[in-house]
Amino acid sequence: MSSETKNSAPPPSEAHYASLSDTPFDEAATKQKLWAAVKLLVVFCVIYFVAAMIATPEFAHVAQIELLGLPLAFYTGILVFAVGLAVTRIFLNQDKE
What we know:
Layout: H1 3-6, H2 27-54, H3 60-63, E1 66-67, E2 70-71, H4 72-96
C-alpha cells in the first residue's frame, strides 16, 4: 500500500465542515432559537412548580378551593399538561424555520 492512499484525508487545518443540508451555519439564528427555548422551559417550569406546590400538604387549603365544582389542584394539574403540549408545539414549529 502506498502512503498516498493511507493519508488521503486533508489535514485538520484544511478540512471544510458543512452541514448535511448544504446550508451554512447561522449563529445568530441558533442563539435566537436557544433563547426562545430557554424562555419556553422557564414558562413550563413555573407552571409545573406552582402545581407541585399547590399539591403539597402545606397548601391543601389552596388546593381545595373549588372552581366549577372541581378543586384548584385538578385545574393546575391539567394546566401542566396543556402548557407542556403548547410549549412542545411552539418549539417544534420554531425548529422548522
